[in-house]
Amino acid sequence: MAVYTDVADEELEAFLEPYGLGTLLSYKGIAEGVENSNFMLHTDKGIFFLTLYEKRVAANDLPYFLGLMDHLAAKGIACPVPLRDRNGVMLGELAGRPAALISYLEGVSVRRPQPRHCAAVGRALAEFHLAGRDFGMVRKNALSVAGWRPLFEASRARADEVMTGLGGELQNELDLLEREWPSALPQGVIHADAFPDNVFFIGEKFSGIFDFYFACNDALAYDLAICLNAWCFEHDAAFNITKARALLQAYNEVRPLNADELAALPLLARGSAVRFLLTRLYDWLNRQPGALVTPKNPVEYIRRLRFHRGVTSPAGYGLDI
Amino acid sequence: MAVYTDVADEELEAFLEPYGLGTLLSYKGIAEGVENSNFMLHTDKGIFFLTLYEKRVAANDLPYFLGLMDHLAAKGIACPVPLRDRNGVMLGELAGRPAALISYLEGVSVRRPQPRHCAAVGRALAEFHLAGRDFGMVRKNALSVAGWRPLFEASRARADEVMTGLGGELQNELDLLEREWPSALPQGVIHADAFPDNVFFIGEKFSGIFDFYFACNDALAYDLAICLNAWCFEHDAAFNITKARALLQAYNEVRPLNADELAALPLLARGSAVRFLLTRLYDWLNRQPGALVTPKNPVEYIRRLRFHRGVTSPAGYGLDI
Which of A1, A104, A291 has its CB closest to that of B290? Predict the structure, then answer.
């Protein structure tokens, strides 16, 4: 949660002027997102979202993220869309930061996803992958297999503080992932962070997907493996095969997985568990005492990783396709 | 800025049900307020504000605060109003905290108030004082003259860390304030914290006053003295007599000040400067390294205090009434 940058009323009104949104009625800093400062604006034209990009988001990547949202929305994906000012520009500057005005996406994140939510996210992810096929820009996934070793090295010496034997277990896992990571799976734009807090529902109905600031080009099935980890384990880290089946079947109906993708799922899921384990481990070991943001405990990803190690075929995820 | 309490979607929907606000479309934690957790809700009936009262607000005081808002709104004061559930109750419970749903007040706080803003707040404060006359509940001002000595004692030993001689200066000032503090001025409900961030404008127009969580019964002119400190000094702590004149004249047109109140203004303004100096001094000396909320520097209140010490009549504030 964060609002890192304070925005003054006069500055904001000057920034808004070229967007033609009418009178500013109110704005509030939003306590969400750990990378950027977010504000909710109300003008006499409606509710809008304002994001100021802080240092952790590379300014060079912003045209990719904003261009992707624009592209996806044009293809009918339910997601926030950057507004263009009267010169057609999506990216401005406010309080010394790159800033964008974005349409307001209604919806509520589900805290305890049910199988029907998993099915909805599976469908949405497949539609996202299809819609991204003709997006013209490319961004490398800095948090894929090549990025894990350096992340591990930054935490290795203290990994066992979190769990005895964790350093060795990760070492072996990385050796295997680097050796066996598939390179010939269908590629495209992936969301790379489609966790329940980045997906909205209104009542029972899927209303949209957002937070594209990890989006990149990578294997499409890897995105699905991320969702397996993000949506199909209970709060006690127990795997829920009913949810996994709902997720994968719904995805497969919209974008059928090929045989290589199906066979690779357990390995991709192990890689995805390692990816979130490593970033959480780093944040956990480097947490500041007294900071308002409590880093998430990495342990639940060790449990996920061990679960996927025991899966030998898609049937382990409830699939019989 | 704060959201201390996390609220789950299902819990929130259950809480909202008895208010009959329709479908929940979205809710966001708001990064403002340091005492409570605040959320902005959007339902198909409109935008609403949800406050969860954290430990620093005494639960016993909530009926006073909510009752006051309800009373003021009924009298036509532009301020947020607590909603009543289907049983007519304003105070509920959510996530283990007392919680209230409150109407959403549109508006923007001005960062650099101009004389016209000061006039508007003067009028609004006088109207607030008149509207509060027949409010039936009473709350003592814990931060008036009797509360200052204990606050000072808590910081005294380290006061000179902020400014050499500050401890002695405050000691002398408190001796004088305790001796000369007026007790026979007209009393009533005061806001006690009507700073620019608790007053909204839309464009040039005053749109409302809010944050009644310091409201209490005390001398009405003391509230005006707080506004002198809050609205009539520049960011470099220089006094702006044009703003003070605008504030006081506008107040006086709605609720004429009597001779005792006029004569007491410089002393009340000294007391008000000491009150904010003492709470800021305490927060400053007890700040946590690395905390997201940076306490405000108390030094600007020493400058205000010294200014008021040199004022010998209301003419020093631009008044010739």
Answer: A291
Chain A nearest-CA distance from B117, in A, is 14
Q: Which residue reads 């307020």 in tokens? A: B33
pLDDT grade for A172, boundaries at 50, 70 and 90: very high
Averaged over A69-88, what is the pLDDT?
97
Cα(A160)–Cα(B41) distance, rounded to whole angstroms? 43
3-state secondary structure B157-213: HHHHHCCCCHHHHHHHHHHHHHHHCCCCCCEEEECCCCCHHHEEEECCEEEEECCCC
Query: Of B9, B26, B112, which has the smallest distance from its Cβ to A106's Cβ?
Result: B26
Q: Do B26 and A107 touch (CB under 8 A)?
A: yes
Question: Could you tell me if B8 lies within 8 Å of chain A, comparing CB atoms?
Answer: yes
pLDDT band at A293 (very low <50, low <70, confident <90, very high): low
A106–B23: do the CB atoms touch at under 8 Å? Answer: no
A36: exposed, middle or buried (Cβ count in 10 Å: 0-12, 13-18, 19+): buried
pTM of the complete model: 0.89
Give the start-to-end residue ranges of the domains of chain B.
9-103, 115-317
A23 touches chain B (CB under 8 A): yes
CB of A2 less than 8 A from some CB of B: yes
> Under a CB-based contact definition with an 8 Å cutoff, are residues B217 and B64 in contact?
no
CA nearest A8 in B: which residue?
A: B111
Q: How many CA atoms lie within 13 A of A222 on its CB side?
A: 28
Q: What is the pLDDT of residue A245?
A: 98
Greater model confidence, B204 or B251: B251
Question: Which residues in chain B are closer than 8 Å to A288, comparing Cβ atoms?
Answer: 290
> What Cα–Cα distance (Å) separates residue B229 from each residue in A40, A274, B111, B251?
30, 56, 15, 15
Say whether pLDDT at B221 is over 70.
Answer: yes
B2 contact residues in A (CB cutoff 8 A): 31, 292
d(CA B69, CA B82): 7
pLDDT for residue A292: 58
How high is the ipTM of this complex?
Answer: 0.86
Q: CB–CB of B43/B174 below 8 Å?
A: no
Predicted confidence band at B176 (pLDDT cuts at 50, 70, 90)? very high
Asked whether the beta carbons of B161 and B293 are under 8 A apart, the reply is no
User: B115-317 sits in which CATH class?
Assistant: alpha beta
Which positions 222-251 of B are in contact with A (Cβ < 8 Å)? none
Contact with chain A for residue B290, Cβ under 8 A = yes
Q: Which residues neighbour B165 within 8 Å (Cβ) at sequence distance 6 or greater?
A: none
Q: Are A31 and A50 in contact (CB under 8 A)?
A: no
Which CATH code, of 3.30.200.20, 3.10.180.10, 3.30.70.360, 3.40.630.40, is assigned to B9-103? 3.30.200.20
